[in-house]
Amino acid sequence: MIREVLRMGDPRLLQKAQPVAQFGTAELAALLADMRDTMAHHNGAGLAAPQIGVDLRVAIFGVRANPRYPRAEEVPDTVLINPVIEPLAADQEEDWEGCLSVPGMRGMVPRFRYLRYAGFDEQGRRFERVVEGFHARVVQHECDHLDGILYPMHIRDLRKFGFNEALFPDQELPLE
Ligand code: NI
Q1: Is residue 5 domain-resident?
Q2: pLDDT tens digit string along 34-84?
Q3: How many whole angstroms separate alpha carbon 75 and alpha carbon 69?
Q4: How far is the CA of 47 from the centre of ligand 1 (A)?
Q5: N or C end: fewer C-beta atoms under 10 angstroms in the chain?
Q6: Does 31 reside within a domain?
Q7: Tally of domains within the chain
């Protein structure tokens, strides 16, 4: 079921979400089905449970290669629960981000370039990945949602924050 996505300004987006305690449940499966439906409906690259008003440390993300967005690297479809992120170097890089909770806008956000992340899938199986670049960016964006952080809070130069059509006239837009 497609759920309403909360928008920036809603205090539920600013909470630290609670860890999932039970895996493999019908409730968790239903939550993930709703999150997938909602993300697909909005053509998102990722979605965190707090964005649909569910106070749990659950995120999904995934980006397929798309010729319309040659800069968007492929990211595997992933369910990430109770995640832990560890930056592997101090290097940061800036790039444009969007968010389904900040519709129609983009901002230039610094993120760690290299990181290791670990977490659990819906069955409670632990996994760990070492990633960089766009994949690392997506993970940091989604995990921020679980701590009540939205990407505009990271923008260093607010001149690089604005509406899609004004920032990128006549261009195909990158994913949100
Ligand atoms: Ni977001």
Answers
A1: no
A2: 999 999 999 999 999 999 999 999 999 999 877 666 667 899 999 999 999
A3: 13
A4: 6
A5: N
A6: yes
A7: 1
Residue 1 is assigned to a structural domain of this protein: no
Query: Could you tell me the distance, in angstroms and rounded to a whole number, from the CA of residue 141 to the centre of ligand 1?
Result: 6
What is the 172 CA–ligand 1 centroid distance (Å)?
A: 19
| Inter-residue contact 120 to 126 (CB < 8 Å) | yes
130 — phi, psi (to 5°)? -110, 125
CB 102 within 8 A of CB 7: yes
97 CA from centroid of ligand 1 (Å): 9
Predicted pLDDT of residue 171: 75
- Which CATH number characterizes residue 39's domain? 3.90.45.10
Catalytic residue numbers read 142
Looking at this protein, which amino acid is placed at residue 5? V
Q: Write out pLDDT tens, residues 118-145.
A: 999 999 999 999 999 999 999 999 999 9
Range of the domain at 17: 11-167
2 occurs within a structural domain:
no
Instruction: Give the confidence band of 176 by pLDDT, cuts at 50, 70, 90.
Output: low
